[in-house]
Design goal:
The chain folds into three domains: about 1-95 and about 190-350, Glycoside hydrolase, family 3, N-terminal domain (TIM Barrel), CATH 3.20.20.300; about 370-550, 3-Layer(aba) Sandwich (Rossmann fold), CATH 3.40.50.1700; about 615-730, Immunoglobulins (Immunoglobulin-like). Helices cover about 30% and strands about 20% of the residues. The protein contains 23 helices and 28 strands. A six-stranded mixed beta sheet has the order 13-18-17-16-14-15, with helices on both faces. A five-stranded parallel beta sheet has the order 6-5-4-1-12. A five-stranded mixed beta sheet has the order 20-28-27-22-23. β14, α19 (about 430-435) and β15 form a beta-alpha-beta unit.
Length: about 725
Amino acid sequence: MENRIDALLEKMTLAEKVGQLTSWSASIFGAFDMGALIQQLVDGAISIEEFESLPRDYHEQEIRDGLVGSLGGAPDVDTLLKLQRIAVEESRLGIPILFGFDVIHGFRTIFPIPLAEACSWEPDLARRTAAVAAKEASAAGLNWTYAPMVDIARDPRWGRISEGAGEDKFLGSVFAAARVEGFQGDLSSDESVLACVKHYAAYGAAVGGRDYNTVDMSLPLLHDVYLPPFEVAARAGAATFMSAFNDLNGVPCTANPYLLDTVLRGRFGFRGFVVSDANAVGELVVHGFSANLREASRMALQAGVEMDMSHGYYRENLPLAVADGSLPGKDLDEAVRRVLRVKFRLGLFERPYRTDAAKAERTLLASAHVDLAREAARRSMVLLKNEGAVLPLAKELRRVAVVGPLADDAADLLGAWAGVGKPEDCVSVLAGMCAAAGVATEILHAPGCKVLGDDTSGFADAIRAAELSDVVVAVVGESKDMSGEGGSRIDLGLPGVQEELVRTLVGTGKPVVVVLVNGRPLAFPWIKEHAAAIVEAWQPGIQGGPAVADVLFGAYNPSGRLAATFPYSVGQVPVHYDHPMTGRPAAATRFSSKYIDGPTEPLYPFGYGLGYTEFTYADLRVDRVEVPADGKVAVEVDLTNVGPVFGEEVVQLYVSDLVGSRVRPVKELKGFHKAALMPGETRCVRFDLEIAALGHHDEALRYLVEPGEFRITVGPDSQRGLQATIRVVAG
């Protein structure tokens, strides 16, 4: 491979080299940048129909001239094959193109949003859905996904919390590796795509939860919490990374040599290439970090960003930087080498045409993929409340009212960044309930209100349906464009008059089951107090409706557990479970770490979830009390299903470092196991806890496992469990 890369580099002109570092998106003819047109679309100056009808420029001549390294977007398979043929058969050197797209939680078959899928606590599920997404994307002619997003997110105001695995580094790391493995396989198959791990780094800690905002944190916190998923993804073989929009401690991530070179390549051993997020190179000027685009391009490349996405800044400015001597030619060559190496690794030079229209036709929305979408959706749902065992619903019910603005809404079940998924592929909750109800059960429907706005004129129909029914299912939450990129919210309550609708329905005296469709943790203390049952369905994808019906009617016993804490109020944020210890923990006295106008505890803690059966924990034991720092300890607990039906329990292991040289978190997740038990069955659940995993970074960024006492807690969530203590001794 290296010899072939050397041979190509010797033949390449400066323009062709820079071309390999350039990623375009399809644009309207005559414009490389569609930003102005997109803004017109957002402003309503042009309709979506007018926008979609405009002819696209796929930069065919630039491809023919060898000036395009990758192309973003998802045109039809025939167009992609045509463009690849131009690159391979008509350009001077025949270098194939990378075709990238945001395949975040499915391509045509749309699965639950990643935050929802993390609530399954099943990394193999994420591996399987990512593999299907890769299979469909590659069949459509793509070979690169801008995923997975592995940012740790502890502020639910940030809309992009929906794209990751939540607030915890351990859970996030496990899912990061699973998704990389699912997308890429071993890259020898034509059903794989390159993964692109994003957003590097600490984007999920944006101040105020405002997208693109600044991040300021200590380096030990960065290395202890925010970088582990990136390291795991790199070591899992991720081929590409994406630099983040934000600055970190005053240095934009897209021109941050500490992040991109010292840590990513030096410490993590990453050997792929880094692409900027869209326009992130140009935004170095807006940050006030670069004086002009030429300087911004040079700084980004030398920091470790090999490919510029979407705006052509590298193409315009790197040749000038080479000409004036500010950019050494060897730095440019090394960047080109890294891009070519990934293309060889993918096998593009040997197999540039990996699909055709017939393969795409039989692959997209294949029945097995749709079945997996239903499985993933129901395994991602979290039962938050079930007072009086109102769930599962009896199929003998006379009438069920299915109300709320999202009950008969298919499009919003898809969530943000839903690939090329279509609303017509999606089954609504109302349709799912109608299909699942018994023959004697009548389903009544009234939307009641819209997701946004203050119109309550539909309340009367919803109340009438409720009064005629035995039980009410209220499907409420967020529209898909209220989360995802640019979807930061200042308020975490139900938008519009939806909570007022729920209050009105509860006032009828009928049991109200609230089904939440949303892309982030929400705050709803009144509903928690007064609803009979609450199911967190998230934005569940194309099979969301049948999956909700499976859960509500008991065809599936919910086993999801929260991957992010739900706050009681937005004023509690950040309210993650693994907060540092304080010298004055919350107590009855005023002078403690608490609020005077509300609870300190969250609405629902990390790891929380219910099911239709119950489990008990007994006899927590460790195989040794004193353990060397380089050893491990076996932790066992007896788990019993004491309820009436088969069920699954996520057994969670947390560790607290009781005394350290730095203030430590109150507890940290260090292991979990999902156990499936029949009624009356008892099983010993075992963890092999590596003591090396109990360390932290000091101010000098040395990783330390300090001697002393550690408390182990094993239980059903981050707030409950049995406890044991071990002592780590110097080895």
